[in-house]
């Protein structure tokens, strides 16, 4: 079944939060779902909507320095491996580029091997940065230039 990628609404994020384990399993990332991000950066916060609900979503924004930053990206448990995450990233890259972004950035914990593998398949450079998220909070930082040809397509 096809999913349409479109700008997210606050009600979409509330729906995602109500069904949080379908997107994040046992990890509780509800506090990271800041509704103000959707309110303020609506054109770069995206959902993949289908007849059976929201299959995936991405919360992101473009910084004043021209960085398209992906705060969160998730796909529902029954859609993983379908290419939906790649499609959400491609749509975000396009929206970010229209707003003047010249590169993409995302972060994850060093323990999140799934996210690390996913971003590497999309051609992101990954580097481990000590104390990135505060003292003792090492993170993996992903970056990739825009525009680019490759795993995301023509973005």
Automatic annotation (TrEMBL):
It comes from the Bacteria. InterPro entries: AcTrfase_GNAT_prd, Acyl_CoA_acyltransferase, GNAT_dom. Residues 3-147 form the N-acetyltransferase domain. SUPFAM superfamilies: Acyl-CoA N-acyltransferases (Nat). CDD domains: NAT_SF (cd04301). This is GNAT family N-acetyltransferase. It comes from Streptacidiphilus jeojiensis.
